[in-house]
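BUG: 3D viewer hangs when loading the predicted structure for this chain

Environment: internal workstation, default settings.
Expected: structure renders.
Actual: progress bar stalls at 90%.

Input used:
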Amino acid sequence: MPRTSFGQALQARNNNHKHIATALQVMRSYTRVPKALQKPIRSPELEAWFAKEASERMGSIPKGLPGQERQAALEMANRFPDGSMRPISLEELLQMPDLVISPQDILDRAQQGVELLKSNPVSEELGTAARGIPGGGASSRAAKWARLNPEVAAKFGITESTPRPLYEVGPKTLLQHTLDLSQHIARGIERIFPNIVMTNSENVHLAVEQIRTRFGNYRTAELANTVLFNQIVLPRMWVEDQQIIEGKLYPAGHGDYPYLLARYKMAETLRNMGVKYLIFSNADEWLWQADPVMVSIAQELFNKGHHMVIIGVENINNQFGGGFVKKADGTQSLVETPRLPWEILREGKAPIALNTTFYLCDVDYLAANEARMLEVEKSLVVKRGQLCGRRFRRGPQPRLHRLAPAQLPGDQGRKLYHRVHPGRRDRGQDLPPLR
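Structure tokens produced before the viewer hung:
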């Protein structure tokens, strides 16, 4: 059986080595940031389209429109028409078969999940799960919080440009919590899970520094199976003065992840190496991992023709970010806020949402549909007084099986920020050694 790492196999494809670096290369690099991660990923076609489309839309709306009406006019081309969908109810989401009934069911699924995670037919050292995470993106809500609370932000070592994945909770950043826990599970079954970290060129040096100073207890093979790549950057336009920001490009958002996954043939490479499950979540949901019970449930659903498991929560904060809807034809879907019909936004009640996100995806399905994941539908999004270039994935919509939303107490949604200690060199001693 091959001993090639995921990083080696991925970099060997096309010109991937120019855009992807492994954590092992980061540790051994003589430069602050490996060459592959130094430059932003640009799309001249999207940049040109944005400049033309933004100017045309701004020139077509009447002057003096109130904020919400102006936003509606600017984004109308993005949105589904009124009457085409409605928010799905909690009762509708709860209509699902019983997947776990008794404590014994949990034990049985855990045992089955362990066997599924270990049964890689191609690689002896890899398990069948991979962990994806956005590791360097800026969060608009976190940036707004830092901007509105400068004294508190300074106390905790946070600035407006600090990527949310690098916020510290306890002795570790969110990024380190995520990767450590993933590897903790993998070591427990004597395997390695590939890690796929999306960064951006503006703050990739911070993510690289995390790996260089805090991942000293990772084995060489684990570092070789952790890859980093930059996301695409696009312009923005200030809505107030209708001026495109010259010489400044911004990360396009987490929607880039499936597009770049396909662009670099990551799903196909994972499949070729015997990996069956891709786990993805935001940086502050590090507890969502390749849990054996969840893997067992996912495999049962995949066997029935589904391709993805998604867990959402009831939107107790009424925070618009998109969510579960039911279309006029009776199908269920997930729709981001920039796509929701204005009638839903005007109602002022956000749908049940992916306020906490967890995706467990069928790698075979992703690999089979990489070509269609590359199809990009261009959009403009009004965000914090700006027009932003944005991409939405087109192509096959996976059949989704939604688990019951959790009832979370109010305090559970609060983010915890820990004081940053630049000099600390946490080595993650809580990770168990390989047997």
